[in-house]
Design brief:
CATH architecture: 2-Layer Sandwich
Oligomer: single chain
Number of helices: 4
Order of helices and strands: HEEHEEHEEEEHE
Structural class: alpha+beta
Number of strands: 9
Strand order of the largest sheet: 3-2-4-7-8-1-9
Strand content: 35-45%
Number of domains: 1
CATH topology: Double Stranded RNA Binding Domain
Largest sheet: 7 strands, mixed
CATH class: Alpha Beta
Length: 214
C-alpha cells in the first residue's frame, strides 16, 4: 500500500507541475518581450533638421554584403527620429553613419523547476523537499539555477559630422542576451533602442523593454 501511495503522489506531483509550467508558458506567449541594455554618447550639433546623411560600410567585409544591406534598411528606419534625411545616390551628405553588429556566446543562469522524483531525492520531511507538506498538501516545485549558453546580440551605431571635420557626434551601443533569439529577430529592437529619445543625454545608460510585434 505504501508503494502504491508513493507512486500516486509522484504521478500527481508531476501532473500538477506540468499544468503549472503549461500555464506559465501560455502566459509568456501573450506577454513576450525583448529587452536591451543601451549606452550612448553624444555631442549633437544644433540645427541639423533636414540635413543629409549616408550609411557607409565599415571596411570591405560590409561591402556588397546582403546581411549588411538588410540591417542597413533597419538602421534607415531608425534614423527617422534624428531629423536627418538620406542623401540621394551621388549627392553629398553632411553626416556619415557607420554601424557594427555581431553575436557572441555567453553564459547565463536560468531558473528551472526541480522535480525530486526524477532524481530520487527524498529529503527529511513529508514526501520530498518543497513539494509536499503537512499531510500531503502540494506546495509547488523547488527552483534551481542552471547554467546555459546564451547569445549576446549587439549593435553599435556611430555618426560623424563632415561639417566638423568628421568629428564623432553620436555613438550608441545596445545588446540583448537570449538563449533562443537570433540577431535577425532582435535587430529591429536594438535599432529602436539606440534611436529612442535621440540624441539623449551624454553618457546615458538605460535598460529598455519592448513588446514583441509592437
Amino acid at each position: 500500500m505504501s508503494r502504491l501511495f508513493h507512486s500516486w503522489l509522484s504521478c500527481w506531483g508531476r501532473f500538477v507541475i506540468a499544468l503549472s509550467l503549461a500555464g506559465l508558458l501560455a502566459g509568456c506567449a501573450t506577454t513576450e518581450t525583448v529587452s536591451a541594455r543601451v549606452t550612448s554618447f553624444q555631442n549633437w550639433p544644433p540645427g541639423t533638421a533636414g540635413q543629409a546623411y549616408r550609411i557607409v560600410p565599415s571596411g570591405p567585409a560590409q561591402q556588397n554584403n546582403l546581411e549588411f544591406q538588410t540591417f542597413a534598411d533597419m538602421v534607415r528606419a531608425g534614423m527617422g527620429t534624428t531629423g536627418l534625411v538620406e542623401a540621394l545616390p551621388g549627392k553629398p551628405a553632411r553626416f556619415d553613419v557607420y554601424f557594427q553588429y555581431g553575436v557572441s556566446q555567453t553564459q547565463v543562469m536560468v531558473r528551472r523547476p526541480y522535480e525530486p522524483y526524477m532524481y530520487g531525492a527524498w529529503a527529511p520531511g513529508f514526501y520530498g523537499p518543497g513539494y509536499w507538506g503537512g499531510w500531503g498538501g502540494y506546495w509547488g516545485p523547488e527552483w534551481v539555477d542552471t547554467p546555459m549558453v546564451a547569445n549576446r546580440n549587439s549593435l553599435m551605431v556611430e555618426i560623424r559630422d563632415g561639417a566638423q571635420g568628421g568629428a564623432e557626434v553620436y555613438r550608441a551601443s545596445a545588446y540583448n542576451v537570449s538563449t533562443d533569439a537570433t540577431l535577425m529577430s532582435v535587430m529591429p529592437y536594438l535599432v529602436r533602442a539606440i534611436f529612442d529619445n535621440f540624441p539623449g543625454n551624454n553618457g546615458a545608460e538605460r535598460e529598455v523593454q519592448y513588446m514583441v510585434g509592437r
